[in-house]
Structure prediction request, 410 residues.
Amino acid sequence: MEKIQCFFYDYFISIGVSELSAKYFNMFTLLIILIIIIYIADRITRIVLINFFGKLSESTKTNFDDLLVNHRAPRRIAHLIPLVLTIKLFPWVFYDFPQFEGYIVMLLKVYGIILTVWIIRSILRTFESYFKTLPRLRDKPIDSYIQVVMLFIWIIGIASILATLINLSFLKFFTTLGAASAILLLIFKDTILGFVASIQVAINDSVRIGDWITMEKYGADGDVVEINLSTVQVQNFDMTITHIPTYALISDSFKNWRGMTSSGGRRIKRSILLKAKSVKYLDSEHIEQLKKIELITSYLNTKQKEIDKLNSDKDKSVLINGLNLTNLGVFRKYLQTYIEQHSAVNKEMFIMVRQLAPTPQGLPLEIYCFSSDKRWENYEYIMSDIFDHALAAVTYFDLEIYELNAGTLV
Prediction:
């Protein structure tokens, strides 16, 4: 090395260059040589590492090494060898100008810190992508945890750079920074709240990626596609994207439809409104007509025998005496039987047809059951099919649907 230094210096002196100029020319010549050496070393190292990881990814079953290559980790690791060479050789270049050494050391340290942060970032992003491929972690907020780690890495990296630039030890720098902790807490308030919310969401298992949630305050109604440190992204059913602050998942109320999607059916809970004045007792003639409806023939035969037995000592010249069937009661039984036999209704889940309290808009008759198919389009079709039939069947029981017409309230 000394021979090379002396060779260029002696050459410039021999051609009549002054001693000071010879030192400068010597420094620039050695610097060009160093840059060429670093460039060649960087290229060779990069090619070797990329080929090595490429062959490794082809020979292994796991996709972790493939993701490592995709996130450019080998390329960034390859820059470490040129950095080491620079640190070793730069005193040789600036041998005649030691006053430059301090600045060069500082710049190399800053570059080394930045390079280290980028390498760690590539590795963390590789872990993030890898964890998302694991079935048991696919619905967990991995982004939030990686972002928290990356945030701390950046804080440490930036603090290290500042400590290097002001020539202060790392520990002393952080001790000085502690005095401004209140300001830092204010700046990173949302980040801290998001981090805490992410942990609580994961521990309580309240939201997973892929869950259907409804949050009226933010206009969200769709599937959760991403949970990160600051926001939760919800793809609504109209294909728009709603961003919800992560901490809102623990501070505000929302509806998670996971219970429905993981159950055996999707609930149907809807009423039809009947005119109260159309409800009446059934006489024997009307009962005989209703027996022609196959779903309730057996029920009416059995029920009529029970009623006739109980009414044997009653004066039936007045229909209200004794026990009687009503058109509403028989219609309710018909709907119950119809739903229980419907092919698209889950028979293992709750099925009920019930009366609700009368309202000024009529007498509600509610159908409560669960469709076997939970897909939105099919669910709506099944529910419409049930109520199409119910509305059409009303007239067979001498009942009337309530409608608020212009000029009448009955």
In short: The chain has three domains: 2-133, 165-262, 266-397. The chain has a mean pLDDT of 81. The longest strand covers residues 266-274. The chain has 16 helices and eight strands.
